[in-house]
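INSTRUCTION: Work out how this chain folds

Fields: amino acid sequence; protein backbone structure tokens

Chain under study, with its fold:
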Amino acid sequence: MADIRVPTLGESVTEATIGRWFKHAGDAVTVDEPLVELETDKVTIEVPSPAAGVLSEIMVQDGETVAPGALLGQIKEGAAAPAKAAPPAAPPPAAKPAAPQPQPTPAAAPPAAKAAPADAPLAPSVRKLAAESGISAATVPGSGKDGRVTKGDMLEAIARAVAAPTPVAQPAAAVQARAPSPPDDAAREERVRMSRLRQTIARRLKEAQNTAAMLTTFNEVDMANVMALRAKYRDLFEKKHGVKLGFMGFFVRACVQALKDIPAVNAEIDGSDIVYKNYYHIGVAVGTEKGLVVPVVRDADRLSLAEIEKKIADFGHRARDGALTIEEMQGGTFTISNGGIYGSLMSTPILNAPQSGILGMHKIQERPMIVEGAIKPRPMMYLALSYDHRIVDGREAVTFLVRAKELLEDPTRLVLDL
């Protein structure tokens, strides 16, 4: 038998929900054939078959929640799927009844293991295994003399416990009682159970609010120079690099420069320590039909503007196809979220724990601004920095945002590192 288990789900991912099984018990499977879809709060992954044979048993059903390493099912290796029953053949011509054959005597069933006496002394090896595994020897049927529990009995009990599906306890959430609707209104309502994935996303976002001392500061940036630069070099950039010149590359470069100046925004809390990260893995939030995912542009400080745009474009395509991997969604040190593509004028983004900062981009909108003593229309964007006030002071947060604003309003600084 080959076990089908939940793979390692990645950093900070401790559970997954069974989305759907692609096969039924009794179906033939091949090596690496997708068997089951798992949904996490970050990505949807497919678990491949570890062996060829027949899916003999499914341990966990659709919609259930499992932890990494949990047993999902088993495959009987080398077996073939049962063939469809053939139609009954015509009865053979009558023949003389054969002499009755003596029936074999069924083998006696092995006697059940006796329960160990309550006062039976335990061997040192049994006591050690019980202490290490947390399994009480009193609950294990003994096969030794007088029903005593042997080391082999304990090892079998531990193996059974490991093979059993691992349920994940769902933390209790405060539920606000809903007043019943009047009959006329209730008839026009539709009640849909929240999916496990959506419940997980909701819980994690709420945990971020409950854990961090979250605060948001705002500023606005004149996007005229970035827009002029894009208009001037857009065609040449796409022809040379094979990718469109977007806004996100400029923001990633600006944030990296600002993070170097204000390292607290690129740090996180670990117990009573602050971990300052001298690398810049920038998460870029991407909206999909199933929810928001955040692939990570690693070592963004070492990438050119073209390389950053290529990675972001690739992430966007694969996120919408559900093809991102867990490794591509973990390890970020700072996040950028662009609500402007949906028309958002201003928002307060929620931290992507355990990070201490997230930048919210918004819609570019022409507004009257005073430029050199005259009122002129300018393409303005509101920026929002949500940060963990436990390690980022207000002065540092505002300085970070002003630094990003200066770089975006004069993008030549991004090239000259000024």
Summary: The first strand starts at residue 2 and ends at 5. Residues 53 and 77 are 4 Å apart (CA to CA). The two ends are 62 Å apart (CA to CA).
